[in-house]
Design goal:
By secondary structure, the chain is of the alpha+beta class. It folds into 3 domains: 60 residues, Structural Genomics Hypothetical 15.5 Kd Protein In mrcA-pckA Intergenic Region, Chain A (Roll), CATH 3.10.290; 88 residues, Pseudouridine synthase, CATH 3.30.2350.10; 135 residues, no CATH class. It is built from 6 helices and 16 strands. The strands form 3 sheets. Strands 5, 6, 7, 8, 9, 12, 13, 14, 15 and 16 form a 10-stranded mixed sheet that branches. It has a 4-stranded antiparallel sheet with strand order 1-4-2-3. A two-stranded antiparallel sheet has the order 10-11. The longest helix is centred in the middle third of the chain and has 12 residues. The chain is globular, with a radius of gyration of 21 Å. 35% of the residues are buried.
């Protein structure tokens, strides 16, 4: 455990920079920021955000001990929301991919769950995606369900394909909205822009006004450079308005890669903190995000017995601090 007293010369330093100086090379700045976001460091006994500026005389204390992500990372890193004989619902942390893929060297969700749920590896259609019926972007957090047997995998997959699963996200986006709700119906394609590998592009808005309640395009407009497009529909409603930012409840009707992030970027309201779909400099704020402000806050589906199940996932500490700081 560490305890540091802020000296006069350190007045006005940001908390993460202060800890970088104090801890030296024993921990990277990224890991220090993650620890602060998780509430593992306090200032005068209170949890604060990464961008907190220190005052002389304050006490900076390691509250819970810092956990390192390593090859030995296990289920302890992943909170289990619910567990039945048929499925497990977890609270996926930001920065962890759901399943192995080329270019991913860190432990993934399915690898973290392997010891406790070895049966996952006999479930599904792809050995690289055992038990996986849907995904959440690596940088996004929240509720994720995995099937523990093939019958449940087929049952859940059918519901996802027929859009019977209800997924709700909480997002903080740049800018403000006139209307309290809206629909974004814009097909998605893979970006061909140099240096934007992996980025998804929503088709141009074809002159649609961005003050409208919904953004749609006709089928005739749904083609670009002969690239294959994927239908994508995102509904949303305003939860709270702040100066220069809006907190939204988001309901994706389809489940495309980067769908929510690409859709809101396309209409001029990118997700706050998104490193890939970032927006205008005019929306810069005093808070610092090391991830997109996008969280899968609940998932609802029908189990094999015919009962509707809903599993919520609370907003992570770092995101709660930012909302509170904005006046939420």
């Amino acid at each position: 455990m560490h305890l540091f007293l802020v000296e006069e010369r350190e007045r006005g330093m940001r908390l993460d920079k202060f800890l970088v100086e104090k801890l030296g090379s024993s921990m990277s700045r990224a890991k220090i920021q993650k620890a602060i976001e998780e509430g593992q460091w306090t200032v005068d006994g209170k949890e604060v955000s990464v961008h907190h500026f220190l005052k002389a005389g304050q006490k900076v204390e390691e509250a819970k001990g810092i956990k390192e992500m390593s090859e030995e990372t296990s289920l302890d890193e992943v909170k289990v929301i619910a567990e039945t004989e048929d499925y497990v619902v977890i609270d996926k942390p930001s920065g962890v991919a759901v399943h192995p893929a080329p270019g991913i060297d860190e432990p993934t969700v399915v690898e973290m769950l392997a010891d406790r749920y070895p049966e996952l590896y006999s479930v599904g259609e792809d050995p690289m995606r055992p038990g996986v019926v849907h995904r959440i972007d690596k940088l996004v957090s929240g509720a994720l369900v995995l099937a523990r047997n093939q019958a449940t995998f087929t049952h859940l997959k059918r519901q996802f394909q027929s859009r019977e699963v209800t997924k709700q996200y909480i997002a903080l986006v740049q800018g403000t909205f006139v209307n309290d709700e809206g629909v974004i119906d814009l097909p998605l394609v893979r970006s061909t822009t140099k240096g934007k590998r992996g980025k998804i592009q929503a088709l141009p808005l074809a002159g649609k006004s961005q003050t409208r309640a919904d953004w749609t395009q006709t089928n005739a407009e749904r083609s670009v450079d002969n690239r294959k497009t994927r239908e994508a529909v995102t509904k949303f409603e305003v939860a709270k308005r702040f100066p220069r930012f809006t907190l939204l409840r988001v309901f994706p009707e389809t489940g495309r890669t980067h769908q929510i992030r690409a859709h809101f970027a396309a209409i001029g309201h990118p997700i706050a903190g998104d490193p890939l779909y970032h927006g205008s400099r005019k929306y810069k704020s005093s808070f610092i995000l090391t991830r997109p402000f996008l969280h899968a806050s609940s998932i609802s589906f029908v189990d094999r017995e015919g009962n509707e199940q809903t599993y919520p996932s609370p907003l992570p500490h770092m995101l709660r601090v930012i909302v509170d700081g904005l006046g939420g």
